[in-house]
Amino acid sequence: MAEDWEENNDSSSHSHENYHEELHIEPIYEAFLCPLTKQIMRDPVTLENGQTFEREAIEKWFKECTDSGRKPLCPLTLKELNSTDLNPSIALRNTIEEWTQRNEAAQLDKACRSLALGSSESDVLQALNFVTYICHKSRSSKHVVRNAELIPMISGMLKSSSRRVRCKALETLRIVVEEDGDNKEAMAAGDTIRTIVKFLSHEHSQEREEAVSLLYELSKSEPLCEKIGGVNGAILILVGMASSKSENLSTVERAEKTLENLEKCENNVRQMAENGRLQPLLTLLLEGSPETQLSMAVYLGELVLSNDVKVFVAQTAGSALVDVMRSGNKQAREAALKALNQISSYETSAKILIQAGILPPLVKDLFTVGVNQLPMRLKEVSATVLANVVSSGADFESIPLGHDDQTLVSEDIVHNLLHLISNTGPAIESKLLQVLVGLTSSSTTVLNIVAAIKSSGATISLIQFVEAPQRDLRMASIKLLHNISPYMGQELADALHCTAGQLSSLIKVIAENNGISEEQAAAIGLLGDLPERDSGLTRRLLDEGAFDIIISKITRIRQGETRGIRFVTPFLEGLARVLSRLTYVLEDEPDIVALSREHNLAALFTNLLQMNGLDGVQTVSAMALENLSQQSKYLTRILVVPEQGFCCSIFPCLGKQPVVTGLCRVHHGICSVKESFCLLEGKAVEKLVACLDHTNEKVVEAALAALCTLLDDGVDIEQGVMVLCDAEGIKPILEILRENRTEILRQRAVWAVERILRTEDIAYEISGDQNVGTALVEAFRHGDYRTRQIAERALKHVDKLPNFSGIFPKMGG
Prior knowledge:
- GO terms for molecular function: ubiquitin protein ligase activity.
- It catalyses: S-ubiquitinyl-[E2 ubiquitin-conjugating enzyme]-L-cysteine + [acceptor protein]-L-lysine = [E2 ubiquitin-conjugating enzyme]-L-cysteine + N(6)-ubiquitinyl-[acceptor protein]-L-lysine.
- This is RING-type E3 ubiquitin transferase.
- InterPro entries: ARM-like, ARM-type_fold, Armadillo, RING-Ubox_PUB, U-box_domain_protein, Ubox_domain, Znf_RING/FYVE/PHD.
- The N and C termini lie far apart (about 125 Å).
- The chain is mainly α.
- Helix 24 packs across helix 27.
- Helices cover about 65% and strands about 0% of the residues.
- It is built from 45 helices and three strands.
- Strands 2-1-3 form a three-stranded antiparallel β-sheet.
């Protein structure tokens, strides 16, 4: 039984006691060892039979005897004892303590020598093991280590070339400083903390684990928290470790606990916020003293936050910051505004702030005048936050600003914004214009803003900002005018007529050669939205040299010479739309015809027609080709046949007319794409036919309208039909008629089909197509008056209606 007990006790014995046996300098006397534990006794006690044991061991033995129902026995003699009284062996204990102190002093001296000199790895590890042992043995022994100046020596081992030594040194330092503030201060006196931080990035996981455990122990001392945080990169690395998926769990937990301790220092909290750990800062912002709250709000306004973090901050502290805006002093409101400026710059976080009630205090800050008004520099921040919030695209029609149910798009509010725009400095004007840009970017609110601009007569003042020297102000103005141009095109065109310089400024923006910017795309988009048949504006653009610039820009884009891929599509579409203005005023304008010929506009728009994926460009190009083609019948050169003379009347053989070749089949004259804008000569017919299969109805409408010019009055319709046949365009036109995608397409398709069916062979062939007949009948039944007339004639061509119908009065096609 005693043997079993010894075996069990040996397996649970302390490693430090085993290590002590290896460390002794003087020999170990048999009397020092407990017969049960085989370890040096610390509290020897004697039984009634004179046998001596370690108190804890013999008490455990007696308990086991009692638990098993036996009388107490002596573990050595196995004889029954009359008493379990334990008598302290004071003399033996004193002797053991003296022996231990002598051995430890000798070992301490040896450890100092091993750590101070270039000792072997095994000697250094033995010295470190001894330091670990004595610190574990007694907390009071830690001052001995400090007094022996072992802490700097152990710290020096962190630079050892041996990984085993470095790991053991980190472990030893942690044990030395555990629950000992003096030792922590001693260790932090040099550059040791910086060295420990470097271990956080080491490849070896054990070194990282030991380093973070040591830092955790040091971070329990508040004075050292600032020193740890002051090491460059320390907090960044700890934040990364605390969120790591690859580190072991204990390392992650220690890193997290270390960061929690470091939160005692405000500078550390700021660093954590910089590195994405915002919760400590937000906690201080919400729960700290007024001074701390103000400090954290100021710092939050200085941070550069990722979008995810902006959302987190808005959810956590958004309401508190809005409350400060409502009721805080000016210093607190300034800090809150700057923080909200950061948070509001992301759509999702801006919507959270709207729910938190940010709009009413923002608008109040902007509109308040007198003693309670904010300084202009803070009004600028308010305007910036409002611009950020508006760009979120929320439903501002349904968000009240106060008890009077006014909203941000109410006429009075917009009038006030327009008034501020005209009576503040460029910085605020720019932000307020951005507010209007945001509100006019939504189809649900743009009409409210347009109505307010019209009722306030602010059009001229808004256009004047186009000449502003400040780029942000000018760009915001141009973007706003672009947004409202579809609803105020004629008003803006008239204003550009009446003002000097604004049109030139827009053209200068478009002409810039630093890539394609958002400002350029907005400027050309604005001009492209203005009424295309306003010949006065077209003439002014011509005088300003705008069309030469536009043609040059289009050429460079098509040749791939222009940077700025992001805005190239709207920019190119705007260029095409403005250039197409020339095609709307060709009639009775010989100089514009000459310009169109000079730049070969028909060929240019034919090439643009092939830019697949740019629906707007294709639509505008087809519309321009329609306009150009309508002029072909007037511009084609008709050959004049000379009258027959007297001789021809006498000799008929001399009167035979010469055979003329090279005439246009459709226009019966000499045509070219450059001089007469002929679609046939410009090889545009096939490209327009290809557009009839487009998924975008606008492209199809424009392409069909251009092709219909080949069937128009004043040209050879039968030859126009043949041209469409050669280009395989008849079938797609019939398909458009059958699909009935839009009313405009049906009207144009019915018109084209009626012209096509005037050719008997085609009419005969199509008469058997039940789908075409049905589509014409539907148009005859449900179309408008003109469409029904044309559908009736088409049905007669395929014998679906008798020729004597007379349902409608005779009218021209």
